[in-house]
Structures are given as structure tokens and as C-alpha cells.
Amino acid sequence: MNAEALIGTVLGTCTLQKLVGQGGMGAVYLAQQSRPRRQVAVKVLLPMTPLSPHQLVAFLERFRRETDAAASLEHPNITPVHEYGEQDGLAYLVMPYVSGGTLRDELEREGPLPLSEVANYLEQVAAALDFAHEHGVIHRDIKPANILKTHEGRLLLTDFGLVKIVAADASPQVRLTGAGAPVGTPDYMAPEQVIGEEVDTRADLYSLGVILYQMVTGTTPFQGETPMQIAAQHLQIPPPSPQMLRPDLPIAAEQVILRALAKRPSDRYSRAEDLSNAFRSALLSAGIQVEANIIQGTAKFKAATGRFMTPKSLFDPNWQTTGASTQSAQMPAAHLNDGALPGMTGGMMLGNQGQSRKLPTAERGSGLLSRSTSAMQSVTGTASALTGSSIPTPGSDGPRTVGGGLLSRTGKFPLVGTGSTGQMPVMPANSTEAPAAPDAFSPFSTAQPASEVGSLGIFNTTGEMTAQAGSNSAKLTGPVKVVQMPVPGQPGRFMTGILPVVPQEEALGIGEEVSLKPEKTKSTKKGLRPWAVVSLVLVVVLIIAASGGIFWFVRGRGQTPTTAGQQQQQQATTKPAGTPDANARATATAQANIILSDPLDQNMHNWLTSPADVYAFKNGAYHITDRGDNGRATVLQANPVDGQLGYTLTMQEVQGKATDTNSFGMLFRFSQKTQNGKTVTTFYSFEVVNTKGGQYQFWLYNDADAKAPWKKLWSQNFGAEFHQGQGDKASNTFKVLMNGNKFTFTVNGKELKTVQDDALKSGQVGMIVNQNGTEVAFKNLLLTRS
Ligand SMILES: Nc1ncnc2c1ncn2[C@@H]1O[C@H](COP(=O)(O)OP(=O)(O)OP(=O)(O)O)[C@@H](O)[C@H]1O
Asked: What does UniProt give as the signal peptide span (predicted)?
């Protein structure tokens, strides 16, 4: 339907005057109502798909039923429905015209909001939701675009039940990818909605959790190029730590957000008020001022207001005689606010490094972060700008002068680039298939102890994967992995999920055996030691990671239950030590301090993938191959982690000559600063020279000293703990525990040495490979608190 064409149309008592906006479910018009005379907003609903006469009847029946329920909701934070009706097959609703825009507009404009404001908004929307739920109405499409804002700052939840009316005939797949704008943006969709399961109030609470996440961080938790990519992440991947994106967010508040975003509905808050109260308490206990009048705003509204309006149906036999009472009870938008809310104070920008630098256009990623809001873009631009300003990019000449960039120990500059290709980990970019679950593996029905699923791992299966139109179930019509993963905050409990197999991986050779032939040649040539370092970009993603049969899972730091409910839940799952649950719980506890886990089997963290013959995900690992003795390196695109940090990484040389320049290892405390107009790059590296009788080496790099940027801090010959050479048996897991100025090095579980150095206090982690032709497979990157 051409929405503009309806201008001038008279629907009931309203003449459509101007198109205000159009979404996936309909168009909104500014309209003049004749009885009572006033300006209103009229929403004309549009079914997702063309309807047969029979479907039209069902659609209108749904419309009456759902709108009747929604219109009966009278709450200060719910947009009233003045009237609704149907005419010439068009179903429409009449609402107050609210001129303050939507929360989406505000978030786009402001980015992250002040925390006290977040608490205030959360409380208002929570009050509306609980009220609706208590009256048996589920919203199903909670998102900032459906939260109107009055000029005085009052939030009004709108569009109750519309998704059910408009998209009932459409499968989740059609809803997300069908003709026209998608209905039910996946950004805010609960996992159970993603796969088309029947939803209850807890789906709304999840969506509220996503809004909370966005108000706090400026971005929704999951980004992707297609709706399916985002949907799949809701299903599978824990949200990135909000605290990493918003450093002033108290950990307890992060815990609240993460609980709201639990994949399994039973792990979420059961009432929105519990969520808003927990969030407010977390702020207050961290000393963050949440003004009483703000917090009490909704209660004040509640007390001060009676019936806002009397929603009447055109099908209501009393309609014609109740116009006067309806009119008197209707409240124009401007009256919907009692002025209790303060004005906006503006957004908070994240990321403080290099904000003034500009990211070269060619390096700006368009994938993972392309949907980001301002805060994210700010950080992305900032981080990549560092590279753009000081480090050469692949295929470019790059800086060639001392002080302008990174200098190898042999005087050569490395080839570097940014990891801004934006590849998505879960679904192919052009996928239109819905993530789906086989009947036997409902993603939310399983709570098995580890022993019952054997080792945690991936169960490959094949089949068909598609969503079934008009049904709540889905069938597999493509290859998927059925995965078991621990439930955050629920030690010993696991859920089953579906992870589509990524065709791109197949193209890259998934399942192929890595040829790991021991290299016998030994060269004594003193070689080049070039280095490379990439940008730092803010994307810390807490991921469920699967590799080598081990599942890592990531949670916010500190797993202390933050609410009585959580404590009870934990107590409820407590079993005597030695039981499978206890063992699983012990494992979970050990992992509780995980800050970030990346199995490096897929590009979850926007790692560099260009040039493809240098940086590539294949065979379940991230491969870096040095070409032309340039040395290659990359750093994790994440905020530096302050305080004690354990960095663990598994490395396996795939090919390379056994010379003393054949080295690879870990970078840490990498940073760049501008000093006297020059960019100074600093970092530590812990490397191995992978030769027979080779060495571990610990280096400090600081190119402020142009003549001697490299300083060796420690070296030690391999012991029996090191698996020298190449191949499956030459896989080594290194750990560096950074505690202030102390660095403790552990290889394959054997602690080697603690070395002290005061030079660098913080920075990024990464990995490096040196020597032409050396290819190293990196796996299982893990950042922990200890
Ligand atoms: N009662 C209202 N008063 C004033 N403007 C409104 C009102 N309701 C909606 N709008 C405006 O109309 C725009 C379109 O709303 P609509 O609900 O059709 O789409 P949406 O919410 O953006 O997307 P979707 O349909 O997918 O939910 C909104 O973004 C909002 O700016």
C-alpha cells in the first residue's frame, strides 16, 4: 500500500492529514478528529502478506480481539487507544498524537544515557509492562521505536499486541526477511521469539533488557548485517559485557542487565519491576545518585492519575452514546506528564583514546559495527584511527620513518591492517534462513548436568533448517551444530542450542586436516624481526566458545548472586560435592572470573582477515601466516582491561622453518599514545623461538626510543613442557598472568617464571607471527581475572 496515497482519507471520525512515519506493521498519520475535535495519531495496520478474503476475515477478527485487550489498558505509561475500527479492509487505531518523538530517536541522538536517567526510563517502561502483563496482555515487540516520549519526558509504551495481529500469518522467517520492512526487529527479540516458540511475558522482559542494555551502552548487544545474523546471536551468544562498554557501570548493575538477557526465560526476572528495582539498587549501592523524585516518578503518576481515557471500540454498542464521556476522559499528550522528570543531560561518550583522530574511510568497517549507535562508532573510529594514523595497512606502504609507527628489532616495519571487515560469526551474510531448533532439542528445555551430556561440546548434525510458516515450530533444513552450553549464573546447568554451520567456513576448508609436517631444516640466519600491530576497537563480546571439545562460557565478573531470587536459584541447584552437578558447578566457578573467551574458530571479535593469505579463520582456528618476512601481528579489538589479568592462548605452528627467527607468541599491554606529535607504540611480547632447543622470550617494545625500541626482559630455554615442532602434538597453551608489574609465564600448565617490569601498565592483547612462511594456528583465547 502506498501510505502517502491515504492522506485525505477519512477513517471513522478522523481525516488523515500527514504521514508521520511508517514501520513494518503499518503507517502512522497525523489526523484531525471531528468528534471530539482534536489532533490525533492514526495508525493504519498493514498485514505482512497479501491476504485472501478468508485471511482478511481472520486478520480483522484478530485485530478486534487484540486491540480490544490492548485498548483496555489504562496506565500512565501506556499510550491510550482512543478508538479503533476498520473501513474498506483497513484496520486502524486512533491514539493521542505524542510529539516528543520516540526513545529510539533519543538513543540515536544521545547514545548512552546518564545512569539515573536510565533507571528512570526503565522504571516507567517496567511499570507499563507489569501492568499489561497483569491484565493478560503481552506486547511481543518491545523496542525503543515503540516507546513514545512526551515533551515533558514521560514514556508511553505503544503498539501492544500489534505484532500478533499483523504477523500472525507469517513465520519468523517471513517476519524478519519478508517483503516490506521486517516486523519485529530481531535487535530486541527474545531467543524464544527468534525460533518462533510460543512466548510469554518473559519475552517482553528480555526485550526490556535489550533496551536497558542499549540505554546503558548506546548499542544493542548483538550486531549483524542481516536480521538472521542478529537473531542467531540472541539464540546463541551471551551479550558483550555492558560494563566493558560503559566503564562507570557498577558490576552489580551489569549483573542485572545480563540476567535480564538470560537466554532461558526461567533465568530472567519474572516481573519488570524486579528488574527495575534490582537495577536501581545496584546503582544506589555503588553510590550513584538516582534522584528520589525520578525514581518515584511513575508511582507519582500512578497516584495522581485516575482514568486517562475510556478506550471504546467501534464495535462497542455503547460507542455512539459515550462520546462525551470518552472525550472528557481523553487526555492530550501534553497532559500526560506531571513534570516530575528532569531534562535530558546528554549522552555519554565512551572511549577516551584518540578521539580526535579520524578513521580513514577505506578502513572503516561496515559489518559488525555498521548498525552501531554513536558511542560504538565513536570508539570504532577512534581505535581504527590509531592504526590509520600510525601503522601501515595491508597493501599500503605505511610509515617508513622511525617514530611514526612500529619498528621491528631489525628495523623493518610490519604489515598491518584493521580488523574491520565486520564478518559475522554465526550466519552467512546472505542467509535468509531462520535459526531453528529440531523438536528434540528445544533450546530452552534442557538443564542437564555436564555428566549427562558427556563432555561439553559440539554435536554435529545435519538436516534441514527452515522456519515453518504459520507454525510455532521449526524444522532443520540445513547443517547445524547442536551445542550444549552452560547457563550463565546457573552453575551446573546447561542448555541445548542450535548453531548453523557457516558455509564460509566450509569454503575455507572446515574439516580438512591441517598438514603439520615437522620441519627439519635448521637455519642460523639472523633474521628479520618485523612486527605488526593493529588497531584497538571497542567490541568486547562475551561469547560462548566451542573448540577442541571444550566449551568456555563467559559471564560478568563476580558471580555472587545479586538478588534473593538468584541466591535461591543457586541453592535450589545445590547438590552434594562429587555429584555431576557439583563438578559442573566447580568448573563453572573456576570459570566465573572469565572476562572474555574467544575460541577463535569463528570471527567473533572482528579479527583482521585481510589479506586473506595472511589472516584467516580455518580449520577451527585463527591462522596468521607471515609473508615476505614482514612479521604479522594483530590485537584484540577490545578495551584494555585494568587490574590483574590472565591471558591464555593456544598456539600451534602449522608450517615454518626451524630457524631462530621462527617465532610466534602473544602481545599484551599494547597501546599507542601521542607524545610531542608522534605516535608512540608500546607493548610486551611473550614468544617462542620454535626450534629444537629453542627459547621462550619476554620483550618490551617502546618506539619512543627510536634507536633501541626492543628490550629483552627475560629468556629461557624450553623444558620438557614445551611441545616443539609442528602438528597436533606441537600445540602449546601459554598463559601470562599480569599483576601490576609482575608477569608470570606458564606453558602447558607449568609455571616457568615471574618477571618484574614497570614500563607498561595496561593495554590490549594480541598475537604475532614472525618469519616468512611461518603459519601459526591460534585457538582458545581467554582473558581471566586470575
Ligand atoms: N501516537 C503517536 N504520536 C506521534 N507519533 C507517533 C505515534 N505513534 C507512532 N508515531 C511515529 O510514527 C512512527 C512510525 O510508527 P510505527 O509504529 O508505524 O513504526 P515503527 O514503530 O517505527 O516500526 P514497527 O512498525 O516495525 O514497529 C514512529 O517511529 C513514531 O515516530
From this structure: none
**pLDDT bucket at 382, cuts 50 / 70 / 90:** very low
Say whether 141 is catalytic: yes
Read off the pLDDT of each residue in 583-604 and give the average, rounded to a whole number: 62
φ and ψ of 621, to 5 deg: -150, 165
Contacts of 306 (CB under 8 A, 6+ apart): none
The grid cell for 763 is 593495554
Structural contact between residues 102 and 331, judged by C-beta atoms closer than 8 angstroms:
no
| Helix (H), strand (E) at residue 61 | helix 53-71
Residue type, 699: W
* pTM, rounded to two decimals: 0.46
Which mutation among 22, 92, 102 tests ligand 1's pocket best, with the greatest number of atoms within 8 A of CB? 102
Task: Tell me what the pLDDT averaged over the chain comes to.
Answer: 65
What are residue 647's DSSP bridge partners? Answer: 736, 783
Binding-site residues from annotation for ATP: 43
For the chain, give the number of residues. Answer: 786
- Report which DSSP code applies to 76: T
Name the band, by pLDDT with cuts 50, 70 and 90, for residue 593: low
pLDDT band, residue 292 (cuts 50/70/90) = low
Atom of ligand 1 minimally distant from the CA of 26: 18
pLDDT digits (tens, 9 = 90+) for 103-152: 999 999 999 999 999 999 999 999 999 999 999 888 988 999 999 999 88
Three-class DSSP labels, 485-546 = EEECCEEEEEEEEEEECCHHHHHCCCCCCCCCCCCCCEECCCCCCCCCCCCCCCCCCCCCEE
* Other CB atoms within 10 Å distance of the CB of residue 685: 26
Select which of 130, 141, 598, 629 is catalytic: 141
pLDDT, tens digit, for every residue of 474-496? 333 333 333 333 333 333 333 33
Alpha-carbon gap, residue 74 to 81, rounded angstroms: 9
CA of 23 to the centre of ligand 1 (A): 7
- Lining ligand 1 with CB less than 6 A are 20-26, 28, 41, 79, 95, 97-98, 102, 141, 145-146, 148, 158-159, 183
